[in-house]
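Internal tracking record. Fields below are filled automatically when a chain is submitted to the structure queue. Please do not edit lines marked as system-generated. If the sequence contains nonstandard residues, flag them in the REMARKS field before resubmitting.
Queue: standard
Priority: normal
Entity type: single polypeptide chain
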Amino acid sequence: MREDTFDNISLSENPFIVLFDRPSNKGNHGTMIRSCDALGADALIITGHAVDLYDPNVVVSAMGSFFNMRFIRVSNNDMIYGFIDMLKNRYPDFTTVGTTAHNELPLYSADLTKPLMLMMGNETIELNKAFKDCCDLLCTIPMAEKSYATSFNVSCAASILMYEITRQRGSVLNCDLTSKTQKTTPK
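SYSTEM-GENERATED OUTPUT FOLLOWS
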C-alpha cells in the first residue's frame, strides 16, 4: 500500500491531475484509474468516504494501470485546497475544471491546454458544492437533442473529458495511426 501524500506525485511541465470525489462504485473507481493511466494524467486524487481502493474489484477493473498510476486518497478537503493553492502559485495559469450535467460550458469550448485539475463528481450526487465553488470553470458534455439521457456514467464521462484534454494538448496516442490503417495498392 502506498502512502497517501502529495509528495508522491511527480508533476509534468504541464500538469493534468484528476480528482474523483467520493467514488461509490468499485468498477467505476477502477475504470477511472485505468482511464487516467491510458490518457496521460499525472495523478488521481480520491476524496472523502470512498470505496476501498485496494478492493479486489477495484484492482481488477483497473487492470495493470493500478500499479502504474499515481493516486492518493485525501479525506480532508482543506488539504486539497492547499494543494490547489500551491499549484496556482507554481503554475500561474493553473485551472480547476469541474464537471456537471447542467448545461454549463460545452467541453469542446473550454481551453484545456493549460495546467489543470479535472474534478469528477460522485456517481449519484455529482461533484460536491465545495469543489464546484472552487472551480475556475464548469464543463458539460453536450447530449444529442433527441437523447433521453441527461448524463454519462462517471467513468465514461471522465474518459471523454480526459480524451478531450489530451486531444487539445496534441498528445493523443503516442503512435502513428496512419501507418496502421493505410492500405497499399498493388503496382
